[in-house]
Design brief:
This protein has 15 helices and no strands. By secondary structure, the chain is mainly α.
Amino acid sequence: MLFGMVGVVQPFFPVWLKSRGLDAAEIGVVMAAIMWVRVVSNPVAAGFADRFGRRKRMVTMLALGGAVTGLLFPFSWGFWGVLAVAVLHTAIQAPVMPLGDNLILLTARDRGLDYGRMRLWGSVAFIATSIGIGAALAGHGEQLIIWTIVGCLFGVFVATALLPNRTTPPAHRGSRPALALLRMPPFLLFVLCGGLNMASHAVLNAFATIHWRAAGIGEEFIGMLWAIGVIAEVVVFAFGQRLLRRLGIVGLMALGAGAGIVRWTGLALTDDPILLLGFQSLHALTFGAMHLGAMAFIQQAVPTRLSATAQALYASLSMGVAVGLTTMASGLVYEALGAYAFLVMTLLSLGSLAANVALRRVWRGEEIA
């Protein structure tokens, strides 16, 4: 349900914001606020989860709070009203994803389950809802968007209530899990590797559709270009355990960074539709392989008592700070360089690979604390 909700929010939430009377600049402010609130709320909530060890209770309460605050959206109008509700809702709802992932990772480790095969259903749900809501919107008002999101939020609450009740010993009184992790060089290099890799997707996410349309590529084929990446990602999640056994954690993350170098260079140099399909298929590695490697690192390297904080810090620093800053800069870069803006993303992938090499030198697979 959580990724099904993302499948509605990511492509269509800005459409709903416009229907509430927000202009382009105000929509940008709301979307940026949502991103930066996550940076703060995720590690704060995860820190409480690690201090008290009651992960399921916290994620269930936050999911219920997210569903209840989601009900405020249909009754909010104008920039300030929508912004206030968006900030409140995100502060409560955003930690559900990293905390839920943490519960799943701990359960997978205890029971010998394949995380990738569980995670692929999130990608399937994303595809289904994004396609389904797009078709359903034809001839209907934008209110369908927000009520679908609210319905998904209550579905998330039900799903979290059904998660295994995995508790961990509480951290020592007065401890600060986030500071403890940020003092560990292997963890910092891990976040740098993942953060630069995730940031390298900024120009793609913000301007690829605009660029391809300007190159004369039709809307249906552009949709195919986006779909092929997610389909390829599902395949990697299905067989990721085999890749992990063969390459190891650091090797799998290196594969993701290396694929980014190829992907962004290719997108900078060609608009040939057939070649674009190949480069877009590399999403299986630039996102899929890197994500699986990152989750495996947290499973293996981070002590259980710090695992929720590690999950939240990775989400906040790599997908919040790194992606947020790069996305903010991507407009200027694309305006100045056009297609060659993808080459700047190649540099970020090179940086991710360099951090990966440094990680290999300081971490040999042991628990880091």
